[in-house]
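Fill-in record for Cellobiose transport system permease protein.
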Amino acid sequence: MVKASTRNRNADKPGFAASFFYHLVLIVGAAFSVFPFYWMFVISTRDKSGAFHVPPLLTPSDQFVANFKRALEQSDFFHALGNSAIVSISVTASVLFFCTLAGYAFAKYQFRFKTPLFFFVIGTLFVPQQLGVLPTYVIMAKLQWIDTYKALIVPAMVNAFGIFWMRQYISSAVHTELIEAGRIDGCGHFRIFWNIAVPVITPAMATLGIFTFLNTWNDFFWPLVVLKNSEHFTIQIALQQLFTVRDGLDYGMIMSATFMATLPLLVVFLLFSRWFITGLTSGAVKS
């Protein structure tokens, strides 16, 4: 009787209703977020007319393997997947290294024209990406990098958002006292950065790495501009080839290939989700 009355009193507390409402909103929001991915999987298991079925199909079938085999016949799927992996990993690694270095310099060092340079970097965020396509393409052509991995990797090795993100995080997370202690112990600039700053800013680096990997993997416009040979096609270009078949659009085939191309993104996010959430919420609570 005592336990039952205690549960009833807890249930009557105002916080119980609020907590129930918050969790209900989160569950509904998660369902809406996951449903497009689930429906893509459902269509990938159906024939080409499954996407037009009324009412919409909500249960998987058994044609996923057959649809994916047709996708492999229409495009060099796994080779394009490997190309995307090479480009995305290379760009992510370079962005993490250079943006973290630049953010650390802007946050913890005093040098001439520091503020104007930082505002100049931030100003590039306001320039639409499309405006830089032509001059970047001309530079790639002058260097004879068209239709190579270098044309995809080198222009994306550093970006203004990464510098801004790391500078803001390092300013609040890496205390000057730690840097001074490292200098007293005889550490050089890079050793202080690598042994003191990097372990502290791992959540921010994971967040930037996930954003960079997702954006590079999903990039379609720039690879379409600079890649001419199918040997270097990324996965997004390979998926676009599935829309050019002569016997009509096969949405089951397209969705099966798209589902398989999305799996690496899910794996990357699941592997680094803990650091990703920590990096996004680090400034939400004051210590």
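KEY FINDING: The chain has two domains: 2-66, 75-244.
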